[in-house]
Amino acid sequence: MTSLPSLGHVPVMLGEVLDLLAPANGGTLLDATFGGGGYARAILARAPGCTLWAMDRDRDALARGAALAAQHPGRLHLFEGRFGDMLALLSGRGVTRLDGIVLDLGVSSFQLDDARRGFSFRNDGPLDMRMGQDGETAADLVNHLPERELADVLHHLGEERHARRIARAIVAARSKAPIVTTGRLAEIVRAAVPPHHPREGRAIDPATRSFQALRIRVNDELGEIERALAAAVELLAPGGRLVVVAFHSLEDRIVKRFMQDAAGRAPRPSRHLPGLDQTPAEFTLLTPHALRPGEAETEENPRSRSARLRALARLPQTPARLRPEDAA
Predict the structure, then answer these.
(1) Dihedral sign computed on CA atoms, order 84, 53, 108, 242
(2) Between the chain's N and C termini, which has fewer beta carbons within 10 Å?
């Protein structure tokens, strides 16, 4: 596995991502989640003649990337934005076709390790969790959502079995004092969750799923993924590739279903039923099944354990979809 210690960040499944993305000289690509810059640096090294656009909603990430952009003048173009808005943001910069797009859906190590960002309960900090600098924070949610709505968030976005107990405990705690730090929220959740039973397998911190759920809600992560996938297939040129790394089942389920649909792998109506159009698929799956990191990588980088990689390519003979602004 290739790692980038100089960035203080290890990009997950870097070799597999590069092989599936296949950046080539003369190509135009997008790193839609610049983060620590690991994929971007590797893409620029793999194809010295390519042009790479890289976006992130986190201004801190873009600030860290300034040095890399300076090393590749005219080749690496950094810009701020949500990856769900990639179509409009790139069109505004004159980019309407891409040969490759990579999406890393995980929270970056920089965000997790910075207590001020409030993503992790490992270090106490303000209960924020915003990937950007605008919108409601996790503290806003836990202090103001009705108990039932809070329980739904924890259940549906964190797949938390004890969502109602946790929501009840949060509401009781906030009635005494606002919950404004990651440490206090983690303590409330841990106290509300029953002790781990050995038969349930490897234990995770009881606060993990609740923190995941709040982070997803704060950043509208699932909605962003759906919008990004739809935009990506609009942007891919013939032969262009989309590579996505997901880190939990909710993300991976969306990616899997979308790619299967695009590649014509979704269940089709019976061929015996008249009048049903069977539209030829415009894409092909490069990964019939999700790829997982190897044992060596998970030992070196435990945060990679849950990663799932999937990739899709537009068929070479299939033109990218023509949009009204392209025809004008």
Answers:
(1) positive
(2) C
CA distance to 29, 54, 234, 240, 313, per residue, from 317 (Å): 20, 27, 15, 11, 11
The answer, yes or no, to whether residue 276 has pLDDT greater than 50, is no
Note the maximum CA span of the chain: 65
Sign of CA dihedral 63, 128, 220, 92: negative
3-class SS of residue 4: strand
Q: What share of residues in the chain are helix, strand, coil (percent, to 5)?
A: 45, 15, 40
Q: CA 230, CA 84: separation in Å to the nearest integer?
A: 9
Tens of pLDDT along 33-45?
999 899 999 999 9
Domains of the chain from N-terminus onward: 5-110+221-327 (3.40.50.150), 111-219 (1.10.150.170)
Give the span between the Cα atoms of 54 and 104, in whole angstroms.
Answer: 12
Give the pair of three-digit tokens for residue 148.
Answer: 């039932």
Rounded Cα distance between 110 and 126, Å, is 16
| Full-model pTM | 0.86
Residue pair 246/310 in contact (Cβ under 8 Å)? The answer is yes
How many residues appear in the chain?
Answer: 328
Residue 180 corresponds to which amino acid? V
Are 232 and 4 a contacting pair, CB within 8 Å?
A: no
Which tokens belong to 108? Answer: 């970056």
Only one residue has tokens 């435990």, namely 302
Backbone CA torsion sign across 137, 140, 142, 147: negative
**Can you give the pLDDT at residue 322?**
46
Establish how many alpha carbons lie within 13 A of residue 43's alpha carbon, considering only the half-sphere containing its beta carbon. 34
Nearest of 197, 194, 217 to residue 206 by alpha carbon? 194
